Amino acid sequence: MKLAVDIDSVKGFLDPAEGEALFDYACAATELGPVLEVGSYCGKSTVYLGEACRSRCVSLYAVDHHRGSEEHQPGEEYHDESLFDGHSGLMDSFREFRQTMREADLEDIVVPVVASSIVAARNWRTPLGMVFIDGGHSLEAALADYRSWAGHIVQGGTLAIHDIFPDPAEGGQAPHDIFKLALASGLFEKVTLVKTLGLLRRI
Ligand code: SAH
Ligand code: MG
């Protein structure tokens, strides 16, 4: 896998091994349909997924309201002051995201959808080869992401969920909860875990 940017220079929350796994599964998924991610932030995961989509000229829909999750807000653990828009008084990672896409030469592949996951999903009809969920970590947000997008994945397609911590001492449980929900639905089977990235296949 060769990326068009120095990935270490892209702000974000993704281990390189997780990024490579995203790339590999997205490569296979592009045979089935376009790819969609929820939670792009500054575009780190988008670069890996986008690189996979490039070879087949398949679209990658990158859904993010770019207002940050709970942990990115001022005063919170993962707040980045340089992504705060003093004019609106809100977080805004979209500028940085666009810059990453331009540097990675992915503007012809990635379709930014600057909206909340629920709004983006409202009239969605396009079947998807792969969905990557890495948005808000409240149970409400994670459930909404799962319910909004999992049903659009075609047979044989991939559902990837980030920040799975089987041990509650290591992290919040909402992503793990939707991972378990996907398995319990009978619609998905577990493929593997790569660090905190859970991978499932639509049966
Ligand atoms: N995938 C990124 C990290 C995503 S961080 C990486 O590789 O670095 C989580 C992102 O989800 C934030 O940018 C936040 O704005 C977005 N987000 C949180 N809740 C959301 C929602 N309900 N709809 C859309 N985006 C959301
Ligand atoms: Mg994450």
Distinctive features:
alpha/beta, 6 helices, 31% helix, globular, binds S-adenosyl-L-homocysteine, binds magnesium ion
Quickly describe the structure.
By secondary structure, this protein is α/β, with parallel strands linked by helices. The chain is 31% helix and 22% strand. The two termini are 28 Å apart.
Give a structural overview.
It is built from 6 helices and 9 strands, in the order αβαβββαβαβαβαββ. It has 203 residues and is α/β, with parallel strands linked by helices. The chain has a domain at 1-109 and 136-153. The strands form 2 sheets. The chain has a 7-stranded mixed sheet with strand order 5-2-1-6-7-9-8, with helices on both faces. A two-stranded antiparallel sheet has the order 3-4. Strand 1, helix 2 (44-54) and strand 2 (60-63) form a beta-alpha-beta unit. The two termini are 28 Å apart. The mean pLDDT is 98. The protein binds S-adenosyl-L-homocysteine and magnesium ion.
Topology (SSEs and partners):
Blueprint: H1 16-29, E1 35-38, H2 44-54, E2 60-63, E3 84-85, E4 90-91, H3 94-103, E5 110-113, H4 117-121, E6 128-133, H5 139-149, E7 153-161, H6 174-184, E8 188-194, E9 197-202
Parallel strand pairs: 1-2, 1-6, 2-5, 6-7
Antiparallel strand pairs: 3-4, 7-9, 8-9
Helix pairs in contact: 1-2, 5-6
Bound molecules: S-adenosyl-L-homocysteine and magnesium ion (MG).
S-adenosyl-L-homocysteine binds at residues 12-14, 38-41, 44-45, 63-69, 93, 116-117, 134-136, 141.
